[in-house]
Amino acid sequence: MLKQFSFTAIKGLVIGGTMLVPGVSGGSMAMILGIYQKLISAISSFWENKKKNLIFLLLFSAGAVLGMVLFAKPLLRLIDTFPLPTMYFFIGAVAGGVPMICRQAEIKAFSFKIPLYILLGAAIVVGISVIPAGTSGSQSENWFFSAVLLILAGLIAAVALILPGISVSYLLLLLGLYDKTMQAISEFYMPFLIPLAIGLIVGIIAATKLLERAMDRHPQPTYLMILGFILGSIFNIFPGIPSLPQAPVCLLTFAAGFTAIYFLSKKEAQGTN
């Protein structure tokens, strides 16, 4: 039990530390670390087993917050100093989680629907990423209308928070709210944060319930689309092909990321069997 609690906190630590990296989705990291479905179930079915779900979510949240505090700045500094090797590590990590997602999709025989679901998921993520930032931004002097818009923005951001491969920070940029949100957080400006938080909470509850139902009733299409989301997210973080001096280092960091996540997800699969 203690070992399981430790793994939950450690995975939260990793997800919290990486989710502020540009283009890296917290949902993607949760998926490739094998904790995604547990998170969805714990949120959507919280009242069915309150004590167990509360402990799980508290451990995960504590790890995630600690990860953001400890690792977010060093990781961003690494990206600034060694952009190509660092991003290739993340690409390797994403690739390392693909076999685990394929196992969860329970692909037993080839079907033309398989690549279609994957391509659909990838197309959604890539499509969102190429929309110019601030396209949906809007201003309103009416406080009630502004509050309604912020609740709607929270609902949209919640879907991005839950779905792998979609960056919440980029979605806020699309809505023209990223700078305002960061400023409101730094200043604890409640008239802005409260309606946004209401939208986030309602959106997270609704999205997790829908996802849990989809995973239970249509596991293969759901996991294949999630795989597409994650593969599509590589488009957002792909830094280009490295030149010869950096190529061997990028290859090593890619291999390190792939190996770490592959064996971690394999161990997770063995632990649940």
TrEMBL record:
InterPro entries: VCA0040-like
Stretches assigned to coiled coil: none
Protein name: DUF368 domain-containing protein
UniProt keyword list: Membrane, Transmembrane, Transmembrane helix
Pfam families per the UniProt record, alphabetical: VCA0040-like (PF04018)
Protein's organism: [Clostridium] leptum DSM 753
Bilayer-crossing regions: 12-33, 54-76, 82-102, 114-131, 143-176, 188-211, 223-241, 248-265
Top-rank taxon: Bacteria
